[in-house]
Amino acid sequence: MSHDRFPVGLEMRVTYPEFQVDLALLSASQLRFTIPEGPFARTEVVDIHVVALGNGLFAVSWQESDGATVTNVQDYDRGLVHAHATLADGTFLRMRGTMAVTRPAERSADDRPRRNKALVLEAMTALFQRHDASVLDRLYAPGYVQHNPGIPQGREGLRTIVAGMSPAVHYEPGLMVAEGDLVAIHGRIRGWSAAPQVVIDVFRIEDGRLAEHWDVLQDEVPLGAARGGVSMFDPGEGAAYRLSAPESV
């Protein structure tokens, strides 16, 4: 896996139980650390080796001038650093610290929006195009929260709906936007009610599954009857925005 998304330029303060350290990601091959106070206080630029582990995770390792070796697992989804260090005197440290970004990266290391859009697209088309309820346990959280007042709570509510769904129900995805753990998708659904409806669904993702859902539906007005002369939904509207590279989830 490539480390193209390693957040070069990012600076952060990592707070461990015993001390704090400032990290500056100078490049994909160099890092500067500063320990401002305490018995380990110093600043050094070190050569690093970066391995992308996926899901916003990077393993970053280096050796310091006194012979100490350090391996960080930097988790940008959760804002955590897991550090394992063998000091020059042989002392082994295993620590977990929290990240506080003090300077943003030159490019985003947050891969969640792309992954979350893929998750939502697969979930919506599986249920409302293919009528495949088998994905519910894989894609939806056990405590799934439903804000639509006409749909029962949880995965079982969706399972019941899919089991009784008319073959005429068909969903078309459109524009998608995502930030952090939230995804909004604009689409059209036919066969759900007497007239085609245009819908905006908003999902919150937690631990790689759909955890919460809100939606707003509106009957589609044909283009010829639209006062503004613009369609409410165009099937091709989201092709450039949904996914740069579709992936299975």
Summary, kept brief:
The protein has 249 residues and is mainly beta.
What's the topology here?
Blueprint: E1 11-15, E2 20-25, E3 30-35, E4 42-54, E5 57-63, E6 69-75, E7 80-86, E8 92-103, H1 112-128, H2 136-139, E9 140-146, H3 154-163, E10 170-179, E11 182-190, E12 197-206, E13 209-219
Parallel strand pairs: 9-13
Antiparallel strand pairs: 1-2, 1-8, 2-3, 3-4, 4-5, 5-6, 6-7, 7-8, 10-11, 11-12, 12-13
CATH fold-type name of the largest domain: Nuclear Transport Factor 2, Chain: A
Percent of residues in helical segments? 10-25%
Residue share in β-strands? 35-45%
Number of domains: 2
What is the SS-derived class? mainly beta
Number of helical regions: 3
CATH architectural arrangement of the largest domain: Roll
CATH class of the largest domain: Alpha Beta
Mean pLDDT: 87
Salient structural properties:
Nuclear Transport Factor 2, Chain: A, five-stranded mixed beta sheet, single chain, mainly beta, 249 residues, 13 strands, disordered C terminus, 2 domains, Lipocalin, 44% strand
Describe this structure in words.
- The protein is mostly beta strands and 249 residues long.
- It folds into two domains: 11-103, Calycin beta-barrel core domain (Lipocalin, Beta Barrel), CATH 2.40.128.20; 112-225, Roll (Nuclear Transport Factor 2, Chain: A), CATH 3.10.450.50.
- It has helices at residues 112-128, 136-139, 154-163; strands spanning 11-15, 20-25, 30-35, 42-54, 57-63, 69-75, 80-86, 92-103, 140-146, 170-179, 182-190, 197-206, 209-219.
- The protein has an eight-stranded antiparallel barrel with strand order 1-2-3-4-5-6-7-8. A five-stranded mixed beta sheet has the order 9-13-12-11-10.
- It is elongated, with a radius of gyration of 24 Å.
- The relative contact order is 0.12.
